[in-house]
Please model this.
Amino acid sequence: MSLTSSFRDWIELTKPRILQLNLIAAFGGYWLASKWSVDWELLLWVLIGITLTMASSCVMNNVWDYKLDQRMNRTKDRPLATERIKRKSALAYGLILGIAGEIVLFWKVNELCGWLSLVGMFVYIVVYTIWLKRASTWSTSIGGISGAIPPVIGYCAFSNEIDTGALLLFALLFLWQPAHFWSLAIRRVEEYRAAGYPLLPVQKGIRRTKQQMIPYVVLLLPTIILLYLFGYSGLVFLIVSLLACVAWCWHTLCGIVTVNNDAWAKTNFLLSVNYLMIVFVVMILDTPGRPFLN
Model:
């Protein structure tokens, strides 16, 4: 094993794509609270802390799931599944990342952000990975709590309090996650079934999963409107986000009658990813305080 491939394996354990999306959300949360009055040093520290703690959680997820990963085509080549990295080494790696991240958040940001991060790590590692992922169809919904915390941490890094803005950001990410993940799960349903994951499409069927995606996506609409009405975002954000959400809602509703589940799920998954990117980019640019887009 070369030094280059080994380095890539250690990076892969942290699930970089998940880190990217959550860092954009955390950045957006900070920007929303600061309203362009940015403390760049504080922003840097909160992003470092979030990166380290999220990376730690992802590593721990890999450590716990390595046997299940060996059963799925999508995950069978992961470093722990192929034993390119040993579990004890990965466990130590995850612990070091988590401790370092918490030190950064408690010491360089504030205690609230440190505690929020600990809650997120506990939900992702213990509640989601160790418990619900193997036991219940509720794993996706409840596990979404951890994925909704990064933008709240970013917000609270500046505000140092949980207020309406923090709660709306939490709702935005919490509602986004189940439909996003279930569209992927529908495409991989047989792999998840073979691996023994009791996901919603495995236990209740694809049609039931499509139906359950609808309320999550629809409830994003009032969340977007409230962000505008409470003055956390501008008119451009409202218009663009509503249009993107309506497009995603319409495609999700069409899933009830579609015949080609795989093609529909692939498109829905891509819509969900692009939706989140669009919403947070426009949110950042159209945050009141310095109306960049006006």
